[in-house]
């Protein structure tokens, strides 16, 4: 396995993902930070269009070099592969009660930090109950 990216933003084609993309770009390119990042999703054409739009908006030509990782929630292997490629996954694919757990699980198994923006109480409680001890032992934030 090659060196991990610092951050992968998963679900960049959605409403939340598009918003998060601007913040990830700004955060990683702020002075003094040398963070590597990539984007993930299931539709490469859509992802490329979104990156091109961000490049036009910001004038940052390095955006065309941002790695794209193809990952589909109906293909567990692709989720595991994505999780192994970063130190942190930011997951913007929801609704989380249907789509969130496999990403958390893959991250815990891969030793990868995980963040999502869920406001779904039953999902949050389930994940807190089922994925508490193992990440703590490995010093992971989930
Ligand atoms: N806590 C809060 O305040 C807050 C605020 C906003 C949103 N949210 C939550 O954020 C989540 C996302 O909301 P949204 O409005 O951004 O949804 P959305 O616009 O429908 O975006 C959903 C994303 O999930 C991706 N996706 C769907 N099925 C997939 C699959 N099988 N494999 C890979 N990717 C898949 C979509 O990719 P495609 O483009 O390829 O379909 C898209 O990128 C929701 O759970 C929502 O509740 C929370």
TrEMBL record:
Q: Which residues cross the membrane?
A: none
Q: One short Pfam family name for this protein?
A: Sacchrp_dh_NADP
**Domain named Saccharopine dehydrogenase NADP binding: which ranges?**
7-135
Q: Which InterPro entries match?
A: NAD(P)-bd_dom_sf (IPR036291), Saccharopine_DH-like_oxidrdct (IPR051276), Sacchrp_dh_NADP-bd (IPR005097)
Q: Which family does it belong to?
A: Belongs to the saccharopine dehydrogenase family.
Q: What is this protein called?
A: Saccharopine dehydrogenase NADP binding domain-containing protein
């Amino acid at each position: 396995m090659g060196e991990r990216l610092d951050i992968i933003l998963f679900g960049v084609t959605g409403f939340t993902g598009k918003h998060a993309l601007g913040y990830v770009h700004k955060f990683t390119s702020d002075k003094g930070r040398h963070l590597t990042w990539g984007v993930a999703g299931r539709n490469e054409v859509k992802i490329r269009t979104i990156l091109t739009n961000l490049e036009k908006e910001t004038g940052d030509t390095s955006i065309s070099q941002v790695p794209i990782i193809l990952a589909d929630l109906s293909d567990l292997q692709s989720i595991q592969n994505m999780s192994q490629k970063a130190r942190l996954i930011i997951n913007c694919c929801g609704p989380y009660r249907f789509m969130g757990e496999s990403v958390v699980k893959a991250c815990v198994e891969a030793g990868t930090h995980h963040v999502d923006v869920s406001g779904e109480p039953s999902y949050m409680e389930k994940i807190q109950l089922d994925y508490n001890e193992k990440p703590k032992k490995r010093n992971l934030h989930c």
